[in-house]
Write a structure and sequence with these properties.
This protein is mainly alpha-helical. It has one domain (13-98, 110-172): Hypothetical Protein Ta1238, Chain: A (Up-down Bundle). 59% of the residues lie in helices and 7% in strands. It has five helices and four strands. The protein has helices at residues 25-46, 50-71, 85-99, 115-139, 146-169, and strands spanning 12-15, 18-21, 109-110, 175-176. It has a two-stranded antiparallel ribbon with strand order 1-2. It has a two-stranded antiparallel ribbon with strand order 3-4.
C-alpha cells in the first residue's frame, strides 16, 4: 500500500470540487484547523478530567465538521454540511459549566503551571490563529458561514477556561504575568 499520491508535487491540492494552489487561503484555513484539532488532541491526552476529555473530543468532532464544510466548493457542498448555531450554543454551555467550577484570577496569567493547562493554552493559541485565517477567508468572500467564526471564537474561550480548570484540579494557582514592580 502506498501512503502518498504525488498529485501535490506541483504545489496544488484537491478540494471537493476543485484543485487549488497549496497556498490558497482556503488551504491555509484547513491547515490551521488541522493544527487546532491536533493541538486539542494533545491537550486532551494530558487532561486529568474525564468529563473535560469528552468535551474536548466533541470539539474535535466539530472541527472535523467545519473542515468538511470548507473542503467542499460552494457549488457542490451538500446542505447537510452547513455548520450550525446549535454547536456555538453547546460550546457556550460547556464553557459556562467549566467556568462555574473555577475562580479566575483578577490578572493576566503566564501559561505553564501544569502540563495539561499548558497544552490547552497552546491549543487556544492555535485556535486563535485558525480564527484569524477564517476571518481572512471571509474578507475575500470565500467564507459565508458566520457560525464557523463564532465557533472558533468561543472555542478559544473554552480552551482558556479548560486550562484554568486543569490547573485548579492540580491545586495550582495561576502565575501572574505581571511581576511586582512592573508597570
Amino acid at each position: 500500500m502506498r501512503y502518498y499520491t504525488g498529485t501535490g508535487d506541483q504545489g496544488t491540492t484537491d478540494l471537493l470540487g476543485d484543485r487549488v494552489a497549496k497556498n490558497d487561503p482556503i488551504v491555509e484555513v484547513l491547515g490551521s484547523l488541522d493544527e487546532a484539532t491536533s493541538s486539542i488532541g494533545n491537550g486532551r491526552a494530558f487532561a486529568t478530567s474525564e468529563e473535560l476529555k469528552s468535551w474536548l473530543m466533541e470539539t474535535q468532532h466539530d472541527l472535523y465538521r467545519i473542515l468538511a464544510e470548507l473542503a467542499f466548493t460552494d457549488e457542490i457542498r451538500p446542505d447537510s454540511f452547513n455548520f450550525g448555531a446549535d454547536r456555538v450554543a453547546w460550546l457556550e454551555q460547556v464553557t459556562d459549566e467549566i467556568g462555574s467550577r473555577v475562580e479566575l484570577p483578577p490578572h493576566f496569567i503566564l501559561p505553564g503551571d501544569t502540563i495539561p493547562g499548558a497544552a490547552l493554552d497552546v491549543a487556544r493559541t492555535v485556535v486563535r490563529r485558525a480564527e484569524r485565517r477564517a476571518v481572512d477567508l471571509q474578507a475575500v468572500g470565500s467564507l459565508h458561514n458566520q457560525e464557523i467564526i463564532r465557533y472558533l471564537n468561543r472555542l478559544s474561550s473554552l480552551l482558556f477556561i479548560a486550562a484554568r480548570y486543569e490547573d485548579h484540579l492540580a491545586g495550582i494557582a495561576s502565575t501572574k504575568a505581571k511581576q511586582a514592580g512592573d508597570r
